[in-house]
Amino acid sequence: MWGSRGSIASVGPSTQRYGGNTACVEIGADHDEVVVLDAGTGLREAGLVHAGDGRPVHVLLTHLHMDHIQGLGFFRPLFEPGREVHIWGPPSTTLPLRARLTRYLSPPLFPVRLTDLGSSVALHDVPVDPWRIGGLTISAAMVIHPGPTVGYRIAGDGATAAYLPDHEPALGGFGGLDWTSGSDLAREVDLLLHDGQYSAAEYVQRVGWGHSSIEQAVSFADLVEARCLALIHHEPEHSDDQIDHLLALARTMLPPERVIATFDGLTLDV
Known about the structure:
The protein is 19% helix and 21% strand. By secondary structure, the protein is of the alpha/beta class. The strands form 2 sheets. The chain has a 7-stranded mixed β-sheet with strand order 6-7-8-9-10-11-12. It has a 5-stranded mixed β-sheet with strand order 1-2-3-4-5, with helices on one face. Helix 7 links the parallel strand 11 and strand 12. It is globular.
């Protein structure tokens, strides 16, 4: 886990236990290829770990809000000559993925253009049907969040995980498994990484912003019968104590062993 926070990254080393990097999660089931979910500021650290190892890299973006792509410009494999890098993202009816990403990876926002990087970069819209990356089977589907946004389901080595870090299923209503946003991706997964940004009081002031309260995250996990709920995309203004409090609240609604809160550097065996 290279990043677990929401929209604002820390400047300099974080002194918080939960860390300050924005969303970035590595999936480690396949040793022939590197698979990373989202490209938040934590991607810089992931790039340092994987620099020079020569393996193909796959970066799976949920959406193109800045906190989920701002690590790309500091991802060392992108600057390695000939390094194979695949970037996957949600389709759009207005602009292709390359055109949307180059708004960031070009002047004046960034000094280097995507076309000037040393690596061999391929950009892909996520397909409608499941596809394979090494030993992993990946599925993607649109979920409720402002702008084109997908969630992911990853299966490999007999385990399943769902990744929905920016998700507001309550906006569409909890209408059962067949009608709730993201439910097909998360149904009966071993690990559900899900948006848990707000307290109930905070959510009331932010309906439609695309994020969930702790109560809603728990309700979603209970609906899809996830074995473990990992709360992610913490509110950037929350202190460690506030996140501890929200985690404790979640553990009153689900068995305590079924709920954790993610933090920078966390490793989970699924």
